[in-house]
Amino acid sequence: MQMNDFVVRFAGEGGQGVVTSAEGLAQASTQVGYHALTYATFPSQILGGPTWTQARIRTEPVLSSGDEIDVLVAFNEEAYETHAEDVREGGVIIYNADDFTMTDPRSFGLAIDTLARSTGNNRAANMVVIGALAQLVHMPQQYLEDFVEARFRRGRDNDDEIISSNIEAMRLGRQNAAESGFVLGDLAPPNPPDYTQMMLKGNEAIALGATHAGLKFYAGYPISPATTILLWMERNLVGEDKFAYQVSSEIEAITAILGAGFAGKKSMTATAGPGISLMSEGLGLAWMAEIPLVVVDVQRGGPATGLPTKTEQSDLMGCMYPAHGDVRMPIIAPGSVEECFFAAAHAINWAERYQGPVILMSEMSMAERVQNIPRPDITKVPVEERLTYEGANGYHRYSGYELSPMPLPGGPGAYVANGSEHDEMGDTTHLPSRHIQMTERRFSKLKLLEEDNYESDNTDANIAIMTWGGSKGPAQEAYDELREQGVDVGWYFSMFLNPLPPRLLEELRSKDLVIVPELNYQGQWAGILRSEGVKAQAITQYTGLPFKVSDLVSRVKEIVSEQREAARV
Amino acid sequence: MSKKNPEYDFKWCPGCGDFGVRRALEFAMINRMEESGLPIENNVVVAGIGCSGNLVHLLEGEQPYGIHGIHGRTLPVAMGIKSARPELNVIVVAGDGDFLSIGGEHIAPQAARNVNLTAVIMDNGVYGLTKGQSSPTTEMGAITSSTPFGKIEEDLDPLELYLTLGVSFIASGFSGQPRVLARLINEGMNHEGMSMIHVQSPCVTYNDTYQLIKGNAKEGIAPALWDIPEDHDPSDKRAAEDLVRQGGLPVGVIYKDETRQSLDANMNIIRSKARERTVEQLMDAYTF
């Protein structure tokens, strides 16, 4: 049987090689031209704890982590018991025979560590697993050997030894799987992309995009799942005229980048929900005093400490209206690892363009998944600089109802960047006419961020799907399936949520119904769309996990038929 | 503001200590301009919220840059400015409520980083702008609008706090001596690291301490104010600790540690250890 899609879940205890096996399989596959995506969840503890990672390999680009598992690799008995029911009919379970035994007819044992040790390389355990998996789908041995060669050839004296022990580990895994008699089918040969690729996580894509756009200063506080951006910056955003470091709280992070933004540097921090709550007053100050900065919110689940290592899209209201008073923050929410790169570059550009705070909303499932993407051509991603004042003294920084050039400390045009309502020079005032002018000025600047481009498909349909952020992948896959099934729905997507591209908003308003899949209880984006005059209805989920494509397909069909029913009555 | 601004309606009460602090800061910035040849725009005044923070709008003459932000966050804002633009002279002005109560959490980390800034704290022992509530430096037992039966907490000794937290330059002064204060502020500006200039700046409306500070011979009140003797060695931490425990209001430099590097100097050491790469090179690490 020919297969175009291969989903493997690796489950066990943290530290057993769950993540390295999944990422190894994904790397081996992309190396030879397949597309891959891994989805990981971690326990919120330092060592051990139940953990699992899913790898999905396809001949076409991967949009979601896959609903059904073809193979479960259970590193311990608990993992088997927890995940066995998710294995599809006809699927296979590989259990770690070094750890436990069992008699499930769908399973065979693999003495993972014993086999690895027999090669003389204890660290080759994940290669034993990858070899066995390759056998189940008849992936040619040459693919695996090419991958091992590429991964371990680093010019060391013992390269040959390491490479041959890893290849031997794969051979042993393959042999054991062959002896088990299980076969899933033949994975179709890859269809290698004709462009240069990168393999990376969402957080790494954000870091790279921001760096490309000219980020100069980063201050952050550790918080899952945003910490990896801080660590990346502390390693890579250090050099002439740029710096990154850890500060003492999210309050310090937001106020420090505000100071740097005021002083003229492109600055950013990244955090998760609890940090957004602490940053709310600082975000209000940046809005009020018109200071460019970028805050990345890598969302996790729930209020308070919530679900630190799970995924959710429940910060949207909090990010759009984080502060007291009249504010509405610009929001960019990328829908894939690739979009994370462009979203970060846009966020830095937006902050400079309208001289204020911008929020980039990612989420745990995107931050921690590894995916192959086309390498962005950075020569095509413009870098914007703020309008600065370079005239003579006597200039009034907050003059008028629209954006005006920003003076920089050290140069002419000294003013007070004021968080109290202020006059043109930045002095505190309580005059109604000034509050009117300044409020209108601050909101008028959002117009500068109205973009023109967005995704759309089957725009004639009077019912459309418009998801946001990281639910894009599963929603897009569901949309493709719905269209194949002949369901007449349209598709819209924009990573720019505030302001929405005006043409898009107009189109959405013309629909009978806009269905909004989103990972929160209240249907936050659907609510915002309704306040904009769009007939929007949410499909919500609040499990801490991403959507399953099959769930979306059936829920959209249900809503569509209800709507058509109602239209007939 | 350089001239009278009719829209700006904030006023300090006549006799407020903050007038003297403003004068001292103006002197200090002019001195620095003359010494360094750098324009006034090279100064950034980061102001807290309260009566004292309004100093940033009330400065006369040539204007420096300013940020009048949110309550309690002057230090991290100043740190961000200094980290981004080490060539700027960064000055914090705040009161005891802003700096020691809501903003207290930021003193220790900025002292540890030894951020090269000069903080001028106007201590009047009360929340003036909100009309007379107790602050960390209000005396225990004092009756204020928020402590009708007496303040329940011990009062804080800011000088001891700064010493304990490792601030590398600590001076103490009085708003009634603007020339002396200006000298202390200039010495703080010239210090490579975090400088605290703690100033007694009385609130004539809610906590008038002028008589306690200056004394009143007729009424037999001895002045709390005393000049730090010339033989005090500010590099000696033990001597500084002994000095602040003597009570009263010392005037002069209490502590000065010139052996430590400031944040910007340490940032350059870190920079020298990092390998700088272009975005394309960084992307190569993920490319296959």
Keywords:
heterodimer, A: 569 residues, alpha/beta, Rossmann fold, 7-stranded mixed β-sheet, 6-stranded mixed β-sheet, 18 helices, B: 288 residues, 8-stranded mixed β-sheet, 11 helices, globular
Description:
The complex is a heterodimer of chains A (569) and B (288). In chain A, 38% of the residues lie in helices and 20% in strands. With 569 residues, chain A is of the alpha/beta class. Chain A has four domains: 2-187, Pyruvate-ferredoxin Oxidoreductase, domain 3; 199-380, Thiamin diphosphate (ThDP)-binding fold, Pyr/PP domains (Rossmann fold, 3-Layer(aba) Sandwich), CATH 3.40.50; 387-449, no CATH class; 455-568, Rossmann fold. In chain A, strand 22, helix 17 and strand 23 (536-540) form a beta-alpha-beta unit. In chain A, helix 4 (125-136) packs across helix 6 (159-180) and helix 5 packs antiparallel against helix 6. Chain A is globular and about 85 Å long. The model of chain A has no long low-confidence stretch (mean pLDDT 95). Chain B is of the alpha/beta class. Chain B has a single domain (18-284), classed as Thiamin diphosphate (ThDP)-binding fold, Pyr/PP domains (Rossmann fold, 3-Layer(aba) Sandwich). Helix content of chain B is 35%, strand content 16%. In chain B, strands 2-1-3-4-6-5-8-7 form an eight-stranded mixed β-sheet, with helices on both faces. The interface between A and B is large, with 68 and 54 residues.
